[in-house]
Amino acid sequence: MNIVVANWKMNGDIFLAEQFVGRLNEIEDVCEIIICPPAALLWSFRNFKYYLGAQNCFYEESGAFTGENSPRLLKELGCDYVLLGHSERRALFHESDEVIYRKWNAAVAQSLRPIVCIGEKLDERSNWKEVLSRQLKNYIDRRDLNDTIFAYEPVWSIGTGLTPSEEHLAEVIIFLKGILPTSSLLYGGSVSSRNIGGIMSIDGVTGVLVGGSSLKIEEFENIIRQMSENSQIYIIHYEVSH
Ligand code: 13P
């Protein structure tokens, strides 16, 4: 099934969370919806019928780490997924590939499915292969990546309204598939109801990671509706009805 992940970042409130739960619980099961609200809002999603993800976790299970979130407790709170290595974490909180990899290990140990974010900055556009290879170096030879999702989010496309051309995105996906043949691959960066069709038409893209457009319920429902039209379930129904 196609995957749509909402990254609310540090936005939203209890009212918005309850509105989303009410509206999205009415939607038919046509794609995998994962909402990643701020940690303080996770409890407001306790009746959500789809999936919950955290935006980050620490690499230790418990201890004297003031302000950090334990992967075990996130699991207890109902999370099945956790975003790791988002470019905002890398840039603002100085997370290195090594720290992200420690978090990956801690998440996997708690059966949280990691969604590892990778992507080049604007001034790295010409050597994107090198950047992605460096960010992926810890995962390349692992054979246990079936449950790990990777999200390609070029930093220059986040919150800017800019997206890579379909040709370029297709090239990146082929490159990533070569390194990560068993993992689902998402695209993130200025995803909206206007460009979702083009993004999902690219071979190997199994879903999207949505920032700003995931905070407006009508826009998000519109994205989900178009994701469903791309999903295998839709194709099966289509074939049966003909
Ligand atoms: P925007 O969709 O707002 O560009 O954000 C993308 C993102 O960072 C999702 O993780």
Summarize the structure.
This protein is of the alpha/beta class. The protein is about 35% helix and about 15% strand. The protein starts with a strand and ends with a helix.
What does this structure look like?
There is one protein chain. This protein has a single domain (2-237), classed as TIM Barrel (Alpha-Beta Barrel). The two termini are 21 Å apart. The relative contact order is 0.15. The protein has 9 helices and 8 strands. The protein has helices at residues 14-24, 71-76, 87-92, 97-109, 128-136, 166-179, 196-200, 217-230, 232-241, and strands at residues 3-7, 32-36, 51-54, 79-84, 113-118, 149-152, 184-188, 207-210. The protein has an 8-stranded parallel barrel with strand order 1-2-3-4-5-6-7-8, surrounded by 4 helices. With 242 residues, it is an alpha/beta fold. It binds 1,3-dihydroxyacetonephosphate. Residues 7, 86, 153, 158-159, 188-191, 209-213 line the site of 1,3-dihydroxyacetonephosphate.
Descriptive tags:
242 residues, alpha/beta, TIM Barrel, eight-stranded parallel barrel, 36% helix, disordered C terminus, binds 1,3-dihydroxyacetonephosphate
Cα radius of gyration in angstroms: 17 Å
The molecules bound to the chains, other than polymers, are: 1,3-dihydroxyacetonephosphate
CATH architecture: Alpha-Beta Barrel
Proportion of β residues? 15-25%
Low-confidence stretches: 232-242
Largest sheet: 8 strands, parallel, barrel
Q: How many angstroms does the end-to-end distance come to?
A: 21 Å
N-to-C order of helices and strands:
EHEEHEHHEHEHEHEHH
What do we call the CATH topology?
A: TIM Barrel
Mean pLDDT: 94
Structural class category:
alpha/beta
- Counted by DSSP, the helix tally is 9
- Domain tally: 1
Classify the helix fraction into a percent range: 25-40%
CATH homologous superfamily identity: Aldolase class I
Strand order of the largest sheet: 1-2-3-4-5-6-7-8
Assigned CATH class:
Alpha Beta
Task: Tell me how many strands there are.
Answer: 8
